[in-house]
Amino acid sequence: MRMIDLKATLKGAKTWLIKRRMGAFRRLYREITQTQWYSKEQLEAFQLARLQRLVRHVWETVPYYRRLMEERGIRPDDIRQLDDIQRFPIMSKEDLKTAGNDIVSTRYRGALLNTAHTGGTTGLPLPVRRDIWSIAREHAFVRRQFDWADLKTSDRCAYLEGRTVASPGQRPTSLHYYDAVMRELTLSTFHLTPEVVPHYADLLQTHKIRALIAYPSAAFVLAKGCLERGIRVGLHRVLTTSETLDEVKRKTIAEAFECPVFDFYGSAERVCYIHMCERGSYHVIPEYGITELIPAASPNEDCCQVVATGFWNLAMPLIRYNLRDLVKVSQRTCRCGRVFPVVDKIMGRDGNVIVTPSGLQLGASAIECILARILYAMYDMPVVAGRVVQDASDALTLEYVPDAEFTEEHAGRLARVMAEQTPPGMHAELRAKKELDRTVRGKFVSFVMANHH
Ligand SMILES: [Zn+2]
Hints:
The structure is a single chain. The protein is of the alpha/beta class. The protein folds into two domains: 1-349, 3-Layer(aba) Sandwich (Rossmann fold), CATH 3.40.50.12780; 377-445. It has eleven helices and 20 strands. The strands form four sheets. It has a twelve-stranded mixed β-sheet with strand order 4-5-3-6-7-8-9-10-14-13-12-11, with helices on both faces. Strands 19-18-17-20 form a four-stranded mixed β-sheet, with helices on one face. Strands 1-2 form a two-stranded antiparallel ribbon. A hairpin with a 4-residue loop joins strand 4 (176-179) and strand 5. The longest helix has 22 residues, at 40-61. Zinc ion is lined by residues 277, 279, 281, 283, 334, 336, 338. The site of zinc ion (ZN) has 7 residues, from loops.
């Protein structure tokens, strides 16, 4: 018998209302099913109109941009062509941190906002505010991505990526939940061991899952486990994200699940979206925002840095935000008939898997999720600097330099988060320090993986 998880289903009902029923979703989805066949000139006109609206919006309602535009003498009417975006400086993650709450539009407050946080392998994870309309609009793009991968709204999906069933440090009674409204099965990525593979495979089958959305590393562990045990799980599609999908992983995943793999790239900041079409080309999605691909400095000269402006999250708009990711640009046009730019490769983090003492197989993205959650706990604490160091495969140390206002209560909160997030069998330690080993100036937080095998 299939277990229906009530909590997941209630949450799903809310998600369903926002993602599928809101006018913002339906209007934009209808629009972008048309615009995907636009000519280059039509797409540029679309982008310019959105950019002009965005700049007017930030001028009127975002204190950070109002100040920046006044300082630089930029007025909304100055944006007459797409290149005019270059009057804005490139924004770094440090700029975002300094901006604080001034980067949030005064038009969106309270219940209209959702908060997530940035990922990335360097720096303190920062809050990302999203308005509910942007969530609906995001889903219009996800929906079209699924169309390209030949997935229908009625197709059931399973998720094996950053979604949390339970914290890594907990031993939950269940490693999954099923949302009957969205028809989504969530499997815990943070409890993935070779032993749970048959259980996960069984869940995929009993829930009649058609598509798996996963980190390449996690899908690979599951795929390899299925192949080794001779378990057959036929899916229609696997979608992967967040790590480089190398050939070995792609082949293993495709073989185990007997279907093609569609890779994609997005960011918590909601500024850029790149995903594969039915012909297997990576396309930069032009209606999502303006993606500038800027040649990287040596030794990565054939790669480009992704600097992006998102059109749709008006609660926290980012203009020319440097995502610090690298892609390999292609001059090819795709045979699918869309004139969207093509990218050959996304140089993401590698999908190496580490094995913890308790046998968990965690990929780079899963580890990063864990570390980001630990570091995010320090976001509003009086801490001068901090980082998580993975000393060995079985030990995490949170080093931090407390400020004068740092209290026992703060230390207690950090210890709780550490305990919650550290996988079983791993040693977790908090170490207050006078300074971190290398010279630091001002407030910064990063994580360093040392002696990582
Ligand atoms: Zn294409």
